[in-house]
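ok so i was messing around last nite and threw this chain in just to see what happens. nothing serious, just curious
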Amino acid sequence: MLGYATSADGVHWDKPRLDQVDIDGSAANNIIEIGRTNCEGIAVLYDGRDPDLARRYKGFYWEHGGIDTYREWKGKTIWGEGKGDGMWMSFSADGVHWTDCGNNPVIAMGSDSTQSLVWDPNIEKYVAYGRMGAGDYTGAELQFTAPLAALRQREVRLRITLRDANLYSYWLA
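result:
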């Protein structure tokens, strides 16, 4: 889930009523509707460089609300998996109303941690860091590289190099 709050000083926060997501019979909350069913570990990036105002905010997250398969651990269901699960992108002009990227999932792997999404001016690409491939660690570093247009066309190239770290970095654009 993603909650929305604003602050002028970083200490005192306003959590406006958005009326987007019903929780226990009430939408009187600051929860944002984004993704399909279960947005987890979202990284939100404000990108003032993007000329498309509808894409000023970029959200990168694990969407895993599938109901086809359930992962269990010690007899407890910890998440569902299904068609369309993986790392998703969504875009927003205001940080409140979101549109999903048309080619989700952009990475057909899950994650078990929060992601980071940054613009790297040295390589002129968006870079996402996280532990993609949740539960299936091989000690490999996975790097996806694609130009920005490829995010829309779903042409993502995969490069794998072996490392001893569980840090997975993805070049998204």
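not much to say yet. The two ends are 25 Å apart (CA to CA).
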